[in-house]
Amino acid sequence: MSEANDDKPKAGLLRRLLARGEADPAPDAAAPAEKKSWLKRLAAGLSRSSSAIGRGVSDIFAKRKLDASALDELEDVLIEADLGVGAAARVREAVGRGRYDRTISPEEVKAALADEVERILAPVARPLVLDRAKKPFVILVVGVNGSGKTTTIGKLAAKYAAAGLKVTLAAGDTFRAAAIEQLKIWASRAGADFVAREQGADAAGLAFEALSRARAAGADVLLIDTAGRLHNRVELMSELEKIVRALKKVDAQAPHATLLALDATVGQNALRQVEMFGRTAGVTGLVMTKLDGAARGGVLVAVAEKFALPVHFIGVGETVDDLEPFAARDFAAAIAGLSEAG
To answer: Which of 55, 106, 114 is nearest to 83 (CA)?
Structure first.
């Protein structure tokens, strides 16, 4: 079981989590050092993708003029790094624009790559806005087995609670006793209310009870865990629909946000997950988890290009401080292997 970092999240991060999209008017003094540390962790998390891209770019463009063959090879490298066909074509066009028959350095290609990836990601880099008029604001977290749902909920609970919000956690993964116990520990650390039933209980009934209790207790936020389910298992996806229906019996607008936890190691399979969970649960935003050295994080570019769903957070580790609001520029620089992300 993952151990949480006992240090409280910095105020600047909390303000960004709760922001309505405006810039932080008064970042705290530690922000530059924190930013550098985060960028280093992000660069390390994307090292598999950035290293593959970097090697390919160097092999293609070292002491070579840019021509159609070089651009074909670049496009292949980007597709193999999981950026997707559409994004790869956009980068190819951007790199080739105005540079034909010129000697172009690998660093110039990486800079053009980062600029184009940022253009793709910028429209989806949006904070998770909590509508305080909805009390509690219900966040349903879904995803396949092992995608990091429970840990993500725990991190969010810690951040929201530290910001002064009254939080309730619901252990909707009733299949696994370990998931219930893990969420109970996160709730205890955050000082959050906790709603659970015995292992094997009806998840929809648990969701109904959790929202009813959270509303009665005056909670600001209700975070609901769900069992991991394969997106191609019809009966399990039907159960997810049942959970949503149960919530709507208490609040017709609930859930107010449905987050899909995407494991960054799954590569192109993430596209199918977004499609199927979006169809079943009405996914409103994404959290990319497990961005570590084994990750294939380039797929986030493909997901953004195809679905245009908001990407709210990315996680690079197990502690509270390893979950950050998604920033397009930082991610683009890291995946291109630019020095500012290292």
So the answer is: 114
